[in-house]
């Protein structure tokens, strides 16, 4: 089925309720292989696209979920503005040639390096329109930043993988585009001093817009890093940026800092998972307390990896379908009070192994109650996050 309006979404959901057939919600389908395999009739919502309202002076934009990230960011750039969570383009990572949509980015909670400064998608999604599993259109949140009335439902849809409702409209807070940007690098540094520098910068008043570490052997454009590199992106007006760079050099007491002309393009490529595009391996994300980044990195003996957010977010590549490597990764993440999510693997692997972290009994009960409130028949993306 293909919906071209909210009314058609309502009709499709009500029909699914009557027949008992689950629905797989699909936009452009670029992240369709993220999560457990889903069975059901496809409800395509890519036609729900376009900018509904844009008020640059109020720093607010409202779009339909099928709007591509590229279209939205280009429209904002025309007014000197950006999305603070810097949504990445993961389509090539999944072997797709199409363009990712903003609705897909919200559904999987995809954020880029600038999340470190402005917060993630859930922090900037002000309001939504959607259709629940009862076939009812509803709206939640608002079109102002300080909307605190009622329960903050928009936050729930971020990272819900389309299991709660079918989004039909999204309202975001946007930010002024930085006037100046510089990427600086501490090159030829091992993980311990590299992550230590990134954490010092993070806790300083510099307000970095990216803190990334790439280990030895990582291809970075035309060169191969001999030991490792810590990358720091700074933004601001010319005078502010110069002051930030001076402060950064003072913080880097044990390593040399240099500006890297290729740094901006490299950070974008890393955010998009480009080093793992085209490989046959499984790809994971690990969310780790930054203070434990070194210990976690040292446990990744047979894996390719790099880290963002001062060591709080790892990209990891493991041999496809290798149970022992997968088990070792999950154990290592638990040891440092973190968790790992399987991002890319074949359908058989995603069906039989743990894709998302196992929830505690209490949290699982809360999750189940929320899903039942939105979608009591479990019509939407059934089985994507938990086996049913």
Can you walk through the features of this model?
The chain has about 400 residues and is an alpha+beta fold. The protein is about 30% helix and about 25% strand. The chain has 13 helices and 19 strands. It has helices at about 5-20, 70-75, 100-105, 115-120, 120-125, 155, 190-200, 240-250, 265-270, 295-300, 325-335, 345-350, 360-375; strands at about 25, 40-45, 50-55, 60-65, 80, 125-130, 135-140, 165-175, 175, 180-185, 210-215, 220, 225, 230-235, 260, 280-285, 305-310, 315-320, 340-345. It has a 5-stranded antiparallel β-sheet with strand order 3-4-8-6-7. A hairpin with a 5-residue loop joins strand 6 and strand 7. The two termini are about 25 Å apart. The mean pLDDT is about 95.
Labels describing this entry:
388 residues, alpha+beta, five-stranded antiparallel β-sheet, four-stranded antiparallel β-sheet, 19 strands, globular
- The proportion of residues in beta strands is 15-25%
State the share of residues found in helices, binned by percent: 25-40%
Question: First CA to last CA: what distance?
Answer: 23 Å
User: By helix and strand content, what is the structural category?
Assistant: alpha+beta
Based on Cα principal axes, name the global outline.
globular
Question: What is the count of helical runs?
Answer: 13
Mean pLDDT: 93
Number of strands: 19
Uncertain regions spanning at least 5 consecutive residues = none
How would you sum up the major sheet? 5 strands, antiparallel
Rounded radius of gyration (Å): 21 Å
Task: Identify the strand order in the major beta sheet.
Answer: 3-4-8-6-7
